[in-house]
Write a structure and sequence with these properties.
Elements: H1 2-82, H2 90-117, E1 125-128, H3 129-138, H4 141-147, E2 150-155, E3 163-166, H5 168-184, E4 190-197, E5 204-210, H6 217-220, H7 244-255, E6 258-264, E7 268-275, E8 311-315, H8 319-331, E9 335-339, E10 358-361, H9 371-381, E11 386-391, H10 396-405, E12 408-411, H11 416-435
Parallel strand pairs: 2-4, 8-9, 8-10, 10-11, 11-12
Antiparallel strand pairs: 1-3, 4-5, 5-7, 6-7
């Protein structure tokens, strides 16, 4: 009995020791977990702060860098109009190409940063793809013709009147980047933009086919990463930054779409976006849709009759942009007045007997009023004036404010042709309203 008692005590002491060690280990783990949770929370706060700092930096950089790029492009166009023969000089040709390259690369970089930041929200609407596809396609007709490539659009049976709920602007970016990528890597053959039903009736497949260089399985695993460019190890800037497919990926994620790729080396590739759609059956089949002039392919309009002598007020504080706008708009024969502050002194730029027909205003201005408030003030003084917010701000809040106020917004840098057509359209509309 004594032996069994001693054995019991030994076992009990051993068990208590194990329990004690387990309890200490559990307490230690709890303390470590709390410390780890506190560290993770601190890191999360630092990451959120870094993300906010990045967003603020990108917003400031977007505005500050867009101003000189905007001025550069307008000055090039103004010089082309004032000295037409100089544009054939090799140096001016290179300057023009450099300006266009800076604009395209900067726009792609800012677009990717905006999509990654999560500040952009999709604006969903019912979109009829049968009318959108030819328009998206024809924007790249000149590039395809220059390379001797065929550019076709195919709509499968029963999907002509397909309607999808999506953001047409974001989806247009996806298609544009896919088409640009396909044309870039295709030297012979052609590119096909197609819309057809997905297998098993699971929505629609929006596809871009090409007969380009193709890709290996290893390349397909990384092509949607930023700055990845196949066949551009030397990082030739004329070939872009490698951001097009990264923009496609983030835009599709924002829209809740899936994008995939199939490719065969030296034979071509197919990029596929899967969309949920509501189908309206028709008996017609449209293939190889003919040319449709894209709204973005607009020539500059120097000295058009409806621009000559028209009164325009520019509210802009950047001296370089002001000089560029003065040189360009004067070449179109416009009567331009300029002011730089966002306060009631903007009315002093409109002396008695001179009422602006159109106002172009920046958003960030020195003074208590921003661009939208300045446009409100001018519309109260001149009820019939046409107004445009011409800004480098890319924040969705600014765009939403402009839309809510009913003002047309043009994002810098603005193509001279687009600016000319916009002014012509607004001034013609004002003339029609005045005559009515």
């Amino acid at each position: 009995l004594m032996a069994m008692l001693v054995l019991y005590v030994v076992v009990l002491i051993s068990s208590l020791g194990n329990t004690h060690r387990s309890l200490r280990q559990s307490i230690r783990l709890q303390v470590d977990n709390k410390a780890l949770a506190a560290s993770n929370a601190a890191q999360a706060r630092r990451a959120e702060q870094a993300n906010r700092d990045k967003s603020e930096f990108l917003a400031a950089a977007s505005h500050d860098l867009r101003q000189p790029v905007h001025a550069l492009l307008l000055l090039i166009e103004a010089y082309r109009q004032q000295v037409p023969q100089a544009m054939h000089h090799p140096v001016m040709i290179k300057i023009t190409q450099a300006g266009q390259t800076i604009n395209s690369l900067f726009s792609a970089l800012m677009e990717l940063s905006r999509l990654e930041s999560g500040t952009e929200k999709p604006n969903l609407a019912e979109v009829a793809l049968c009318s959108k596809l030819p328009t998206w396609l024809e924007r790249y007709r000149p590039e395809a013709d220059a390379k001797g490539l065929s550019l076709r659009c195919f709509l499968a049976p029963r999907v002509e009147a397909s309607v999808v709920s999506t953001d047409p602007v974001l989806l247009g970016r996806v298609v544009s980047n896919l088409l640009s990528n396909a044309l870039h890597y295709t030297s012979s053959g052609g590119v096909l933009l197609s819309l057809r039903p997905a297998h098993a009736g699971q929505g629609l497949w929006l596809e871009v086919w090409d007969t380009g260089v193709g890709m290996t399985q290893k390349d397909m695993a990384r092509i949607f990463d930023p700055y990845v460019q196949l066949g551009n190890r030397e990082r030739d800037r004329s070939k872009g930054l490698g951001l097009g497919l990264a923009i496609v990926k983030h835009a599709c994620e924002l829209l809740g779409l899936t994008v995939s790729v199939q490719s065969v080396p030296r034979r071509g590739s197919c990029f596929r976006v899967t969309l949920a759609a509501r189908l309206i059956t028709t008996d017609r089949v449209r293939t190889d849709v003919g040319p449709v002039r894209a709204a973005s392919q607009l020539p500059a309009l120097p000295r058009q009759p409806w621009l000559m002598g028209r009164r325009v007020l520019l509210v802009e504080d950047d001296p370089l942009v002001v000089a560029a706008m003065q040189a360009l708009l004067a070449g179109w024969g416009l009567d331009l007045r300029c002011t730089a502050r966002g306060d009631v002194s903007v009315l002093d730029a409109c002396p008695p007997g001179w009422a602006p027909e159109c106002v172009l205003s920046d958003y960030r201005l020195p003074g208590p009023l921003n661009g939208l408030a300045v446009l409100d003030l001018l519309q109260q003084r001149f009820p019939r004036v046409m107004t445009v917010l011409l800004t480098g701000e890319m924040a969705s809040s600014v765009q939403q404010e402009a839309e809510d106020a009913g003002y047309l917004l043009l994002s810098k840098p603005v193509d001279a042709g687009v600016l000319a057509h916009t002014l012509g359209m607004l001034l013609e509309r004002r003339s029609e309203e005045r005559s009515a």
